[in-house]
Specification:
CATH architecture of the largest domain: 2-Layer Sandwich
Order of helices and strands: EEHEEHEHEHEEE
Oligomer: single chain
CATH class of the largest domain: Alpha Beta
Number of domains: 2
Shape: rod-shaped
Largest sheet: 5 strands, mixed
Radius of gyration: 31 Å
CATH superfamily of the largest domain: Translation initiation factor 3 (IF-3), C-terminal domain
Number of helices: 4
Amino acid sequence: MAAKQKRINAQIRESQVAVINEAGESLGTLSIDEALNKAEQFEMDLVEIGVQNGLVLCKVMDYGKFLFKQQKNQSHGRQSSKKADVKTLKITYKIGDHDLDIRRNQAEKFAKDGHPLKIMLTLRGRENNFVALAQAKMNEFIQSLGEYYKVTEVKLVKAGNNFSTLIYPKK
């Protein structure tokens, strides 16, 4: 993602430009030749940054250093942005209380890290006859996560012999 290239030094085509120094102080309205000479005196570049009062506004700065800082800030922003992965917990129809406690502890860790949680329950064989009990077990488990996740608008989705739902952590 390259930033829009700015016109520098000889690329600037205006005859008169408003010039500011690196600190942002105005140097006044100068001809392009005078502005380029000023930039050369400071051993810096003349960079077109915008339009002000109908005049092209140019800044005397070290353009290479500016590009380096800009690139560094962009890469730092990409590194610090954290993508929340969807974590999945699978429970079964016959899951024991201790195993549910372990899943609850895992869900608590995921919530503290800010991850959304997908909960799945798969029915196998004769368990498919007890759909209502499976839904009740899922709802009970989801409600037990209410301390860490938003569970008010939970919708169970049944696809084949699987129940699943997606819940999001409280901020």
